């Protein structure tokens, strides 16, 4: 399985959204 196939089949990949991301959410992801 190559990278692109894995990305296309992974359910955890969320669709792109233009919703605002807060600084707190970014900090949570970086930790």
What does this structure look like?
The chain is built from two helices and no strands. By secondary structure, the chain is mostly helical. The model has no long low-confidence stretch (mean pLDDT 76). The protein is 48% helix and 0% strand. The chain is elongated and about 35 Å long.
What does this entry show, briefly?
This protein is mainly alpha-helical. Helices cover 48% and strands 0% of the residues. The chain is built from 2 helices and no strands.
In terms of topology, how is this protein built?
Blueprint: H1 3-9, H2 23-30
N→C terminal distance: 29 Å
Strand content bin: under 5%
- State the low-pLDDT regions, or none: none
Rg over CA atoms, rounded to whole Å, is 13 Å
H-E string: HH
Largest sheet: none
What is the global morphology? Answer: elongated
Which structural traits does this protein have?
mainly alpha; 31 residues
């Amino acid at each position: 399985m190559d990278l692109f196939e894995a990305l296309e089949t992974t359910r955890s990949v969320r669709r792109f959204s233009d919703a605002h991301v807060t600084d707190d959410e970014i900090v949570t992801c970086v930790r």
